[in-house]
Design goal:
Layout (H helix, E strand, L loop, with lengths): L8 E10 L16 H17 L4 E5 L3 H8 L6 E2 L9 H8 L6 E7 L3 H11 L12 E9 L2 E10 L5
Parallel strand pairs: 1-4, 2-3, 2-4
Antiparallel strand pairs: 1-5, 5-6
Length: 161
């Protein structure tokens, strides 16, 4: 007798959005988006608006460029100092609660932490992977047949959104 397939349970969604293109200047934390960066941010924001998961909390680095990127999508975000340019993978995991929190978290942040977290989620170890400026990576943590899995749901570069 075959048992019915178990439904897929999605525990948490984690969306990683690298800030859009910013001007080269100092101090680093006050760098603004370029005109191209604003277009990148708005394209991804439109895509997010159409595909956003429910119960989405938005967590943003305190830098100006990340706040501007997030503002293209929503003004309802939380600034998290640990997500700044010097943040690391443990900071990202702690801020989001991945994989044990419920709902969904969108992190608007920086390289190299976003790329290193993506590598960890997909390969099991941190590595220097690059997420392009303005791009969005969407991960889901799910349980299927008693096994916890991390699934890459989408990678959306800003020029394809």
């Amino acid at each position: 007798m075959m048992s019915a397939p178990q439904p897929v349970k999605h525990d948490m969604d984690l969306l990683l959005w690298r800030h859009a293109e910013a001007v080269d200047s100092t101090p680093d934390h006050t760098r603004e988006l370029t005109a191209r960066g604003l277009k990148q941010a708005h394209r991804i924001a439109r895509w997010l608006d159409a595909h956003r998961p429910k119960q989405l909390k938005v967590l943003v680095s305190p830098s100006l460029r990340t706040r501007q990127t997030a503002s293209a999508f929503t003004d309802d975000f939380q600034i998290v100092p640990a997500l700044g340019p010097d943040g690391n993978v443990p900071d990202l995991l702690a801020a989001t609660g991945w994989p044990d929190a419920s709902g969904a978290a969108l992190v608007v942040g920086h390289q190299p932490a976003l790329g290193r977290l993506s590598a960890l989620l997909l390969s099991g170890s941190e590595a220097d992977w690059t997420i392009k400026k303005g791009a969005l990576w969407w991960f889901t943590n799910r349980v299927r047949e008693g096994e916890t899995q991390t699934v890459l749901r989408a990678v959306i570069p800003s020029d394809l959104a």
